[in-house]
Amino acid sequence: LHSPVSLIFDIVYGGSITIAGELTWALKKSGNIESPLNAFFATGNIFSSSGLGLLQDKGLTILAENINRMRYMSHFRSVHRGAFFQEMRTSEPRQLLPEAWGFICPVHTPDGSPCGLLNHLTKYCEVTSTPDPKLVANIPSLLTSLGMVPLKGVSLIALNHNEHYVVLLDGQVLGHVEKREAQRLVDKLRILKIDGKRVPRTLEIVLVPMGRKCGQFPGLFLFSGPARMMRPVINLAAQKIELIGTFEQIYMDICVYPEEAYEGITTHQEVTDTSFLSSLACLIPLPDCNQSPRNMYQCQMGKQTMGTPCHTWHLQAETKLYRLQTPASPFFRPGHYDLVGLDEFAMGTNAVVAVISYTGYDMEDAMIINKASYERGFAHGCVYKSEFIELKSQKSYFGLDPEQPELQASLDSDGLPHPGTFLKQGQPYCCYYDDDEAKFHVERWKGKEAMYIDNVRLCGGLSQEPTKACIVFRIPRNPSVGDKFASRAGQKGICSYLWPEENLPFTETGLIPDIIFNPHGFPSRMTIAMMIEVMAGKSAVLHGLVHDATPFRFSEKDTAIDYFGRMLEAGGYNYYSTEKMYSGINGCELKADIFFGIVHYQRLRHMVSDKWQVRSTGPIDVLTHQPVKGRRRGGGVRFGEMERDSLLSHGSAFLLQDRLFHCSDKTVMLLCQTCGSILSPVVRARHRGGQYEQDICCKVCQENGKVEEVEMPYIFRYLVAQLASVNIKIKIDVMEQ
Ligand SMILES: [Zn+2]
After folding, report:
1. Four-point Cα dihedral 66, 70, 75, 78, nearest 10
2. Distance CA 208, CA 251 (A)
3. How far apart are the CA of 27 and the centre of ligand 1, in A?
4. What distance in angstroms lies between residue 205's CA and the mean position of ligand 1's atoms?
5. How far apart are CA 518 and CA 368, in angstroms?
6. How far is the CA of 137 from the centre of ligand 1 (A)?
7. What CATH number is given to the structural domain containing 132?
8. Domain tally for the chain?
9. For residue 538, is it within any domain?
């Protein structure tokens, strides 16, 4: 980053400059390396004049966001191919090629433009560190003892390349080995590699065989360096775990199950049949029963779930944290869930779900939530926000302004609020004396929502007065109409109504669903795993169990439906998990049996309270005089071309004019009827009889001009002015009405 650093290296490692003064100078100059590195880690941007030979200088770090455990975990395992590929038209960088299989998860990638570029490592994949240098130095002599002819004294050009493999370690030629000896050498080297005592365990051994018509250059390639991806597989000859790399994988035969192994060909076996999935994909219940994109959606939505990101709520000082008040452990979950201890950071709740089309409030992914369940605390949550108030000088202090006695109502005598105080917009939460300006400052709550003071902490040394206060706000966010929920099968929905319990359908045992899910959500999405979960959740509750939802646990011969169906029968329920239900409105029995059970639902962080937008009048753009966009600035919602076409097709011309003209950039302009220009009329001030009067006239036509006032969109004037700059005149004909 800084040239003086290389200067120091010159000095330390035998450079020519040895004068002490220059050494001190260099050290002084290079002392600044800390702040560029800090800035790099904070922003992910590199500032350099040379460019450092990088394809991109922005977005080189990923911020580890702790919205919930899933997101936090996956951020440490994500890999980005680079922003450069995002604009590329070819799909090749996005494909999961054979060398990436088992290292990169095929499921855990977003859809849209970063698809296949923002990837995640599989659960067992590891990235190598620098190996023991002694072991690496040992490799050449070891290879010689195993049958390699060292480079010394042998000309490679003179070799018959059809009979010999060249041996390279980290790109450096070590020697050659005879063709018939090569496989034996590789096998022996693998045994030593598994052992790890004489050869690093992270050594990659690639024998690119001869005799292929087109392909990679034959040879024995060895890699020992750091920052390579490796994953464990079972070496069938040694019956032990071996780490393999991306390059060697494509020349290996790896089976998934032992019965698939071919005698004499298959050398390795996968550790488990789910080892090609990332940690997050392994948390989806029965992903093998879902249509593939649904699993991708769940990987995205799992990371947006409200949950339990931390346990130190009273100590944390994050800018924003989401919390679910009553999280529950799912009844139907893969073994990986317990392996990563996700119950410690629980998210989501178990909901009683009826799959029924009831009223019109469950159309198109909308879902009805039982109002009584909501009142009992279903999916309640809150958002924590922290704010820091820093005193600028030593003589400043936190305290109440004696001239504002009304502050005492909400603030303590030290100028800070009581924990638990309820505050609305504009109410004060902190008061301090600023010595620089010699006056008191009052901080007021700017958010539109009401909130509680969760806790107040003072920061500073023990010997001096505190100079910094951290105030944590708690904003209640209980479910409301418009909030987003999703099951773990990529089935998202918006709450459309908090329906009174007495009007919802009920079963013969008197059970009333928490959530009503529309059956039309199933045929097109094909999320069979969610249907299985309905049955599994119900049978788990009946028998007091937690069911295993590890992928590939069931097969065509031994189906999940049969397993859970028989379990439901044993509990006295219908084999297919359907139940007789009665209308909540008139008490009549519903003709169809209703699919009824328990599903684990996630509450997503997208809430209407953060998104609602409304505007009558407000700020406009300086250039176009049209309303600005953006919720924060009080802007409008865009009424675009598609919306325009929609209104045109309905024939609602007045509404269209209202949206695009009256509520947008309507202006009164002056137009000269004689020359038809809107640019030439001007307003002048004229002195007449001791008073100034407005005089409107056309600059071009002078006395002949007949200037009228016309309503027009302001953007039209802008267009006319632009065209005038390239010598195109717009002439407007107007008629008296
Ligand atoms: Zn004119």
Report:
1. -170
2. 7
3. 74
4. 86
5. 9
6. 91
7. 3.90.1070.20
8. 5
9. yes
| Judgement on whether residues 439 and 574 belong to the same structural domain of the protein | no
H/E stretch holding 242:
strand 240-245
Residue 48 lies in a domain: no
Exposed (0-12), middle (13-18) or buried (19+): which is 262, by Cβ within 10 Å?
exposed
What is the 622 CA–ligand 1 centroid distance (Å)? 27
CA of 702 relative to ligand 1 center, distance in Å: 7
Rounded CA-CA distance 230/558 in Å is: 35
Report the sign of the C-alpha dihedral through residues 359, 361, 362, 367, in that order: negative
Quickly count: other Cβ atoms within 10 Å of residue 475's Cβ: 17
User: Which tokens hold the place of 482?
Assistant: 């418009």
3-state secondary structure of 621: coil
Cα–ligand 1 centroid distance for 589 (angstroms): 79
339, part of any domain: yes
520 lies in the same domain as 421: no
pLDDT digits (tens, 9 = 90+) for 548-584: 999 999 999 999 999 999 999 999 999 999 999 999 9
**One domain, residues 502 and 369:** yes
**Tens digit of pLDDT for each residue in 701-710?**
887 888 888 9
CA of 687 to the centre of ligand 1 (A): 23
Instruction: State in Å: Cα 707 to ligand 1 middle.
Output: 7
496 with 372, same domain? yes
Q: Is residue 17's pLDDT more than 60?
A: no
Q: State mean pLDDT over 685-691.
A: 78
The pLDDT tens digits of the residues spanning 598-655 come to 999 999 999 988 888 888 888 999 999 999 988 888 888 999 999 999 999 999 999 9
Residue 463: which region, alpha, beta or left (left: phi > 0; alpha: psi -120 to 50)?
A: alpha
641 within some domain = no
What does the alpha-carbon distance between residue 516 and residue 358 come to, in Å, rounded to a whole number?
8
The rounded Cα 471 to chain-centroid distance in angstroms is 27
Report DSSP letters for 133-160, one per residue. Answer: HHHHHHHHHHHHHTTPEESTT--TTTS-
Rounded to 10 degrees, the C-alpha dihedral 415/416/420/423 comes to 70
Does 487 lie in the same domain as 471? no
Asked if 375 and 507 sit in the same domain, the reply is yes
Cβ atoms of 67 and 309 closer than 8 Å: yes
- 222-243 per-position pLDDT tens digit: 999 999 999 999 999 999 999 9
Within 8 A by CB and 6+ apart from 663, the residues are 627, 636
**Tokens 């580890």 appear where?**
64
Residue 430 is part of a domain; what is its CATH number? 2.40.50.150
User: How far apart, in whole angstroms, are the C-alpha atoms of residue 279 and residue 287?
Assistant: 13
Q: What's the domain range around 396? A: 381-476
106 near 125, Cβ under 8 Å? no
Is the confidence at residue 4, as pLDDT, over 60? Answer: no
- Per this entry, what is the length of the chain? 737
502-558 per-position pLDDT tens digit:
999 999 999 999 999 999 999 999 999 999 999 999 999 999 999 999 999 999 999
**Domain boundary pick from 437, 454, 476:** 476
CA gap 386, 471 in Å, rounded: 6
Centre a 10 Å sphere on the Cβ of residue 459 and count the other Cβ atoms it contains.
Answer: 12
576 and 692 co-located in one domain: no
The CATH number given to whatever domain includes residue 712 is 3.90.1800.10
Pair 595, 355: CB distance under 8 Å: yes
Cβ atoms of residues 347 and 307 within 8 Å: yes
703 Cα to the center of ligand 1, angstroms: 9
Same structural domain for residues 500 and 531? yes
More reliable by pLDDT, 5 or 33: 33
Q: Where does a domain end: 91, 120, 149?
A: 120
Distance 679 CA to ligand 1 centre (A): 9
Distance CA 621, CA 635 (A): 10
Q: Of the candidates 662, 669, 668, which has an alpha carbon nearest to the alpha carbon of residue 639?
A: 662
